[in-house]
Amino acid sequence: MKGSRGGCSLIIILCVVFAAIVSLSMAHNDNTAIPIRRSRGCVAYNPIDRCWRCDRHWAKNRKRLANCAKGFGHGTYGGKKGKIYIVKDSSDENVISPKPGTLRHAVLLPEPLWIIFSGNMNIRLTQELIFMSHKTIDGRGSEIHVSGGAGFMIQFVHNVIIHGLHMYDIVEGSGGMIRSKHDHVGIRGRSDGDAISIFRSSQIWVDHCSFASSYDGLIDIVAASTNVTISNCHFVRHDKALLFGASDKTPEDKILKVTLAYNHFGKGLTQRLPAVRFGFVHVVNNDYTEWQSYAIGGSDGATIISQGNRFMAANGACKEVTKREIVPESVWCKWTWRSEGDLLLNGAYFRQSGNPHWAKAYKGYPLIPALPAKNVPNLTKLAGASLKCRRGVAC
Ligand SMILES: *[C@@H]1O[C@H](CO)[C@@H](O)[C@H](O)[C@H]1NC(C)=O
Ligand SMILES: *[C@@H]1O[C@H](CO)[C@@H](O)[C@H](O)[C@H]1NC(C)=O
Asked: What residue range is the signal peptide (predicted)?
């Protein structure tokens, strides 16, 4: 009896020790960028990628991506509840009655759709591409280049995922008669020449896209749009890249909430990475390797929380990360712009202002927990649309 009781308590002690070791090692995994290998050859570094990338059967389980949005765009499921639509035709000739099989035909349908492509394509949009709600554009498995024509107009809708596209050399659309809903055709003015324009829309997630040199901006988020996440994207060669809040006269943009996570701001960028008016922007674990004028700017009381980013100032460029527009320090000193755990290199500096105890005021906000900034090169290593996913192999 005695002996067996002793054996039992030994087992209990061993169990307790084992449980402690397991929970310690799990905590370790949650708090660092140590990659989880689930499929041979696949290393997904960041929590968004880890949600889907190492699944060898990603092509059969495409809609799994719909559960992976984090930050303010969390819960964006795009076309998860709809059918798969395969774009087989890269043309965009008819903007009033788009041909079935084209991207324009797909995004204008009223029902939820998960839109994929039959092969590699270069799509030159004749006019801005206007979306209906509940769509996913999923470029995985194909090289999809949207360039040389107009850009995307996400207006008055919600719940859209854009994943795996190359967008560059976007120009103004001439305007004219364009279908803007499945049941409405109307006359539209010139489009701005933004790669993606998000206008009075919410629940938008842009992931693993590559953006470069367009006529106006790369991504605009305006007119009381909110709940947007831009993650794992790669930005290069552009002057005014990201504009959140278009004007000093639109206080409705106070509602704007955007997460920027795991993006790489690379070669040939000048400013607006992003520029923010009124709203709240969480900038977490991004890699900034070039800006000429400034990285993060803003005005009108915008709130900017910068955590775990790597800011590497370029030689011969401005070293200050931040820029406040036009008002005296007595005004901007009240704007909450905080830098926590950022890695500031080559003379880069972030001028902070506002409330250091900001977190108390924003309890319940879906802020992606920052990983250490030294892991940013790994976290953003595969940013952009060049994952080259192949069927049957983890991306
Ligand atoms: C934005 O998301 C929050 C939850 O995070 C929700 O309460 C709010 O209604 C959303 N707003 C819009 C316009 O979708
Ligand atoms: C990046 O990941 C590699 C392994 O994939 C690792 O050896 C390296 O230490 C990581 N670097 C950092 C800074 O975490």
From this structure: 1-27
